[in-house]
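Hey, can you fold this one?
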Amino acid sequence: MKSEKIVVVLKIIFLGSAVLDIFGVSYNLLWLEIISKPMIVLSLIALYTISVKSKNYAYLFALFFSFLGDLFLLDKDGYFLLGIGSFLITQILFIKIIISQLKRSNLKQKVSSFLPFAVYLLLLITVLWDNLGEFLIPVIIYGTTISVFGMLSLLNHLLGKTPKSRLLLFGAVLFIVSDSLIAFNKFHEPIIIYPLAIMVTYILAQYLIYNFMIKMDSYK
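Sure. Predicted structure:
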């Protein structure tokens, strides 16, 4: 009962932090973002730790590097590459988690998973190419990595088509949408709605992946 109350409190902290951060982004209140944004992932770390019987340390490290990435991207100009690097490690850890539980697949399933995200990556790089400059290689590396995350999430879903696999797939797609909007905002044409959309999709992505990890633990 005590742990259930703690879970409720932590979920309130997560939701409250998310709402405050979205408010801060909407009204350009950097001080509010600095306070609330780190709490989003920290509350997920606490939630996951208290909610599972067997901790997946790859996921905990993924959340830790997400936390670092959030901190670095509070200053998108000075620490952008460090932010990309932190989230790159996050994506690699997500990939590791999926690979560890993937079942055998056939060629049709692999091609069906590969094509949508390969096309996405090609279009993204093509649109941004002229403005990437010194960021060309980092963006290609990061874009490729998160595309692989998407491919494996879709393959995992095609192999099972369960509520659990849908959580991961939707989480991966929203993560890709969020990161794509960051890229468009920085390297293409900034639009006033982008910062808000980036945070909403990112928060939802993290929460869906968290729920996937909770369900993954319950199946053990």
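The chain has eight helices and no strands. Let me know if you want another pass with a different chain boundary.
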